[in-house]
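To fix ideas, we quote verbatim a fold written out as tokens:
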Amino acid sequence: MANLAKRAALPPKPDEVFHMAFYDRGTRYDSGARYDQQPPTPKRTRMAQVKLELDRRSDDELHQFAETHIAQMAGNASFPTPTPTAAAFQAIYDDYCAKLTASEQAEQAAREATQLKDSARVAISQALNDRGNYVQSASGGEQGSGVSLQGSGVSLKGLGSVCENCSLLTA
């Protein structure tokens, strides 16, 4: 008997719970639900989510993705009124394509300009070395000679720079 009293004081286990309709949760008296029936359990399914991962795509991948999307959406009866409209999306896509092409051309032009600059740098460095050698040989390395090293606009080793904009030349 003590065991029965103890058992009655405990809450029922989940499989022992008596289910009945809860009229205070939206069920109406005329809905056909009965107290002695288990209420219908709503079917919970996860809604499919769109996964774009646009930040992880390169420019070319994004271009291809948008192109494929346009082809898939054209005339698709499942999506009759997309937002933005097909014409607006095509205009945005065309603008992106134009800017992507311009960017790629600018990058190529920048690479070519950098190569030309590097070639010119090699040429000016060689010319400055030649001038430094000429100044060194013409003066004989003497500060007090008739030819002034300091008047040539080059730096002298151990004496610091003569002009602020001149580079230190080494032969």
